TrEMBL record:
Binding site for NADP(+): A10, G11, L12, G13, T14, V15, G16, A17
Swiss-Prot/TrEMBL keywords: Amino-acid biosynthesis, Methionine biosynthesis, NADP, Oxidoreductase, Threonine biosynthesis
Pathway annotation from the record: Amino-acid biosynthesis; L-threonine biosynthesis; L-threonine from L-aspartate: step 3/5; Amino-acid biosynthesis; L-methionine biosynthesis via de novo pathway; L-homoserine from L-aspartate: step 3/3
Source organism (scientific name): Aurantiacibacter arachoides
UniProt entry tagged with the keyword NADP: yes
Family: Belongs to the homoserine dehydrogenase family.
Keyword presence, Oxidoreductase: yes
Top-level lineage group: Bacteria
Residue intervals of the ACT domain: 359-440
Residues annotated as binding NADPH: K107
Full protein name: Homoserine dehydrogenase
Amino acid sequence: MAEPLRIALAGLGTVGAGVIRLLAENGELIARRAGRPIEVVAVSARDRGKDRGIALAGYDWHDDMTAFAALDAVDVVVELVGGSDGPALTLARKTLAAGKGLVTANKAMIAHHGMELAALAEANGAPLRYEAAVAGGIPAIKGLAEGAAANRIERIYGILNGTCNFILSEMAATGRDFADVLAEAQALGFAEADPGFDIEGTDAAHKLAILAAIAFGTALDFASVDVTGIARIRAGDIAQARALGYVIRLIGIADCDLAGQEAGGEAQLFQRVAPYLVPVDHPLAGVTGATNAVVAEGNFVGRLLFQGAGAGDGPTASAVVADLVDIARGNTPPPFSLPAALLAASVPADPGHRRSRAYVRFMVADRPGVLAEITAAMRDAGVSIESFIQQGHPDEEDGQPVLVSMVTHDGPEAGVARALALLEQSPSLAEAPLVMRLLG
Ligand SMILES: NC(=O)c1ccc[n+]([C@@H]2O[C@H](COP(=O)([O-])OP(=O)(O)OC[C@H]3O[C@@H](n4cnc5c(N)ncnc54)[C@H](O)[C@@H]3O)[C@@H](O)[C@H]2O)c1
Ligand SMILES: N[C@@H](CCO)C(=O)O
Ligand code: NA
């Protein structure tokens, strides 16, 4: 058998320990498939003495992980530390500049610095792979960049954050409280070190921006993702959605209008992460727990659905090691499918022109005239209301604001925004309204 692929592993937390366990259990099978063994030779983490349930005695320990880049005995560095900047980025830059391969699960770093790292990788002939960074164990990047390479991708959307999906589906199934379910997601190893990245939608936005670059051949543009998280969703919204025939899911969605680019200008890139109402008979409605799903619509293949575990030690390790197998086999396409210099510039699309149906929820003072005030604002903004529900909810107590919601007919998003601007100063509203669009 050929020489081993020698790995230095930075980070021995949920994912890092998972990689060690996977290679220990499936190492022989993987060596046969890759044509050569994959061997961890060096490791680094913050705390050398911590009990991780794995034996580290056979590995060369380094307190400073950035030293990996200079080790002759290392072919590929695997970065499983996290953080968009700081030591992870220093390690990534040094590794690629030294011509060594880099495998990472770090979507924050790729979303912020992916273009720079891709250019560095290409300039130094070094492979850069990050399958674990998007949708965990699902081979979504490979499916899109390789399996769907023959297609123009019209639209890409899906459930990209396991923690949020776990929270939303558990709350709906059991009526459990948001904070309680989040604590369980953290204990299961799904959540980011700062779970604000999950619940505010930032983590899903990192992944969406990466997928969009691969799908549309546009330069990675995380900054222009329109992001809304799940923190404002109440049990009452979940109940209202259910009564209307929907479930609530945090969805990342992107499309790209290339007409401008074809006329010599720039492509218009739409990227949004937000909670959506998903019809109960839609394939994404049945995606529960930490499962993720990615839908890609190609102009020849039609609709592809990739589904599987989006977080957790085993599934994420599976994606990390699949990248190592590709490197061992010499299958190293450009990091974003096209060479970095060919990724096209784009401008963010104006969401106001997009059409959708929307669920709009208000917490209102329970007094006469409030509903008339809301419907008048909708009328004045030209928004057509399909249904309006004021429904008692078990959380309510006398004198407390009441949850009322409406569903609009299909119309430009700017219309709902105009109506809510008209209501902005209204003393009848106890908090800002919540808008969730219906997934079409
Ligand atoms: N947990 C998941 O399900 C999952 C899924 C996909 C991607 N990811 C990504 O994988 C990466 C790791 O996530 P995790 O859940 O394993 O995190 P974790 O917090 O469990 O582990 C992080 C590890 O990095 C080490 N570390 C931190 N700072 C370090 C430093 N300066 N030098 C050396 N080691 C250092 C810690 O000691 C720890 O061993 C993150 O980028 C995360 O976003 C995680
Ligand atoms: N915190 C992330 C981990 C996987 O990227 C999630 O919950 O999806
Ligand atoms: Na993946």
